[in-house]
Design goal:
There is one protein chain. Helices cover about 30% and strands about 20% of the residues. The chain has about 200 residues and is an alpha/beta fold. It has a seven-stranded mixed sheet with strand order 1-3-4-2-5-6-7, sandwiched between helices.
């Protein structure tokens, strides 16, 4: 897939105010410092599309980007580590989870995981929650340029092995780098493949 256009559409916390659910949609989410915005910019070839910051928790809204006038890329708030109050964090989690379970055109959730670390409980718990709610997801291991291929592969295998304690089959995964665009073409190819089978629902 070649991305020709990537347009910001809206930022929202209310699911009922999101764009009409007529196009396939893909959500990107991960821990607050996982490098999500940088990866989104690498995927789209637009380094200014998603706002990047040295401060974890910069994304606090559901951000919709229209890609090639054909599908939505959705940038969701990160979980964990953000320096916000417990009440604010609880409110974020509530509207994120509401979005994930009610958005009828959501095709897949891409869960971003820092490849530099051993499996983290917060990432595993989120994957378990997705599984419990029957939400399709794929794993995206980020920052591959920050450590050796052998070390990152070791962390990936440990994460997948841990998931097998809960899942019968582990979802597909991608090893990525926003710096080198490693894995970006594979993610876009996966999205392209899903798009070919998308059947829009009637939206009033």
């Amino acid at each position: 897939m070649v991305i020709k256009t990537a347009t910001f559409i809206s930022s929202n916390t209310r699911v009922d105010k999101l764009p009409a659910a007529r196009l396939p949609e893909y959500a990107f989410i991960g821990r607050s410092n996982v490098g999500k915005s940088s990866l989104i910019n690498a995927l789209t070839g637009n380094r200014h599309l998603a706002k990047t910051s040295q401060t974890p928790g910069k994304t606090q809204l559901i951000n919709h980007f229209l890609i090639n006038d054909a599908w939505y890329l959705v940038d969701l708030p990160g979980y964990g580590f953000a320096k916000v109050s417990k009440s604010s964090r609880a409110a974020w989690e509530k509207f994120i989870r509401r979005y994930l379970v009610t958005r009828e055109n959501l095709q897949c959730v891409f869960v971003l995981i820092d490849s530099r670390h051993e499996p983290q409980r917060i990432d595993l718990d989120f994957c378990y929650w997705l599984g419990e709610n029957g939400l399709p997801f794929m794993l995206v291991f980020t920052k591959a340029d920050k450590l050796s291929a052998q070390k990152s592969q070791s962390h990936i295998e440990k994460f997948r092995k841990t998931l097998l304690q809960w899942f019968e089959k582990v979802p597909a995964y991608f090893l990525t780098s926003a710096e080198t665009r490693l894995g970006c073409d594979r993610i876009l190819a996966a999205i392209d493949d899903i798009n070919t089978n998308f059947e829009p629902t009637e939206v009033s």
